[in-house]
Amino acid sequence: MNKTLETEVNQLHAEICAGLADPTRIMILYTLSQSPRNVTELCNELDMSQPLISRHLKVLRERGMVTTKRNGTVVVYSLGDKRLVQALDLLRAAMRDMLAKRAELAEAIA
Q1: Does the domain at residues 3-80 carry the CATH identifier 3.10.105.10?
Q2: Which of 68, 69, 57 is nearest to 25 (CA)?
Q3: pTM
């Protein structure tokens, strides 16, 4: 891969990771993986304010992680790619294993 293309791929990778770097955005992605929702539904389900949810949806939308479809006056958000949640699940599995290893170390020194 040439250097320019490699740099662009790494930049895109970093932007996607930045999109995942907030607990609220992760919760939004998991919620949308169940079914599409509008902002009001997301606010009610996640017990968060509309401005907060809208800001996070903007970040996710800019990165292509969610898609939108207008239904009259309502905008419905959907998960952009189901592999995003699969990637989050893989990260959680790795995190669980790391925590288990730390617990083993803590027990060993206790």
Answers
A1: no
A2: 57
A3: 0.89
